[in-house]
Design goal:
By secondary structure, the chain is α+β, with helices and mostly antiparallel strands. 31% of the residues lie in helices and 24% in strands.
Length: 329
């Protein structure tokens, strides 16, 4: 019997099935800037209407949150997570997401699973007026076990050079506003899984995996609502490392984000993990977002307008002078 690619563990037919399942849905994310007729080895996107455009890119994955999704056979939210982790990053610089590409690796490809993951990306792209223009599915027996998947993505956005947000305009007296998260988003799940090993245990009247798998919130609409109404001095996406590691990334030298953690609305699931895991309070703020998915810094006179424009936004602190870039009080 002769060897074939399938005998080595790679089923090309399953890959073709995956493409068939997602092809029309992916096409629905395209706009007039997507040039499908130029080539088959690369994706083309035409840029127009900008004076001095700057491209802003971000790449990320979903991490071990995937383990919960795979173990409970809930795949639809993972694609949203993958897109959101990339797109939310570039939003911090005022960039509008243009296009997204994905990478899906596995031990044995199952078209139903792969299609469900990509359909989550399609939904997220539509919500962010972003085109899903390409991707790669890699079946790698021997590298991954059957049933194992890894997901990563790459997002490119655009912003006028004189409108780039980089934190340089942040000044003493500016207000720090929290935009709430939808849960853990896609960070800290190695610790989450250690504290909650049984994904089917009941929490607040439903299996805990339903709470853990709530997808990462997409902030495109909120951020661009603000940018169209006011000048924003700084935006931080609160991902791995929590407030402690992410807020200082936008704070100029000599200034400090003084945050009153007693004002932060910590989700019940995070209160539970802190209690059950006997985790120190500051460790929580250096690991999880603690209910704050994004931080926006604006002039004091604009703080009330932010809270008016964005549902559930609220103040958590002020910019002060200090050699340390963040202070949790």
């Amino acid at each position: 019997m002769s060897n074939t690619y399938k005998s080595a563990g790679v089923d090309k037919e399953e890959g073709y099935k995956t493409v068939d399942k997602i092809k029309s849905a992916v096409a629905e994310t395209h706009n007039k800037n997507v040039l499908n007729n130029l080539g088959s080895f690369g994706a083309f996107y035409e840029i127009g209407g900008y004076k001095n455009p700057v491209l802003v890119s971000g790449t990320d994955g979903v991490g071990t949150k995937l383990k919960i999704a795979l173990d409970t056979k809930n795949y639809d939210s993972i694609g949203i997570d993958c897109f959101a982790m990339c797109a939310n990053d570039i939003l911090c610089h005022g960039a509008k997401p243009l296009f997204f590409l994905d990478y899906l690796a596995c031990g044995k490809l199952e078209s139903e699973v792969a299609a469900a993951i990509v359909m989550g990306m399609v939904k997220a792209c539509k919500d962010n007026q972003c085109a899903l223009i390409g991707g790669e599915t890699a079946e790698m027996p021997g590298m991954y076990q059957p049933g194992d998947y890894d997901v990563a993505g790459f997002c490119v956005g655009i912003v006028e050079k004189d409108e780039v947000i980089d934190g340089s305009k942040i000044k003493k007296g500016d207000k720090i506003i929290a935009l709430p998260s939808s849960g853990f988003h896609s960070n800290g799940f190695s610790l989450v899984r250690k504290i909650f090993p049984d994904f089917h245990e009941e929490f607040q009247g439903k299996p805990i995996y339903e709470t853990l798998l709530v997808p990462t919130k997409l902030y495109y609409n909120d951020v661009f609502k603000l940018l169209s109404n006011m000048s924003v001095s700084g935006i931080a996406h609160i991902t791995g490392g929590g407030l402690i590691e992410n807020v200082p990334r936008i704070i100029p030298n000599g200034l400090c984000a003084s945050i009153d953690i007693s004002t932060i609305k910590v989700p019940a699931i995070m209160q539970e993990i802190e209690k059950r895991g006997n985790i120190e309070h500051l460790e929580m703020f250096g690991t999880f977002n603690m209910g704050v998915g994004m931080v926006v810094v604006v002039d004091e006179s604009l703080a009330s307008k932010v809270i008016e424009l964005v549902d559930d936004a609220y103040g958590i602190g002020i910019i002060t002078e200090n050699t340390e870039k963040i202070s949790l009080i």
